[in-house]
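Hey team,

Filing this mostly as a record. A colleague (T.K.) asked me to run one chain through the structure pipeline before their review meeting, and I want the input and output archived in the tracker in case anyone asks later how it was produced. No errors, nothing strange. Just documentation.

Input sequence:
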Amino acid sequence: MLLTLDLNDPRPLHEQVTAAIRRAIAQGDVAPGDRLPPARDLADAMGVNANTVLRSLRDLRDEGLLEFRRGRGVSVLRRPDPREALRERARDLLDEAARYGLGPDEVVDLIKDMS
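Output structure:
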């Protein structure tokens, strides 16, 4: 499971980590029933503090995507709702567009031009 963070992303690190793990689950990099690597390994791979990863894992547990089991680690319970996954990616797109000075209407026009 390859997780990366955007250093230019203005969101707090724990939100970026949460989004990266959610995206990995949604894209099928990790399937329901699979165990995630230990938080320390995920933190090392992403270059963040282990507590940041643990906060993200708790957020995803609270969303019902992950399950914590004593002695067995963290497992994926289910994939996120596809609409929610797309909503997250659309939010990222709008954030990126804003960095370039584009508003939501301009992004919609760009998408319409592509179809």
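Quick notes for T.K.: The chain is about 55% helix and 5% strand. The CA atoms of residues 52 and 67 lie 18 Å apart.
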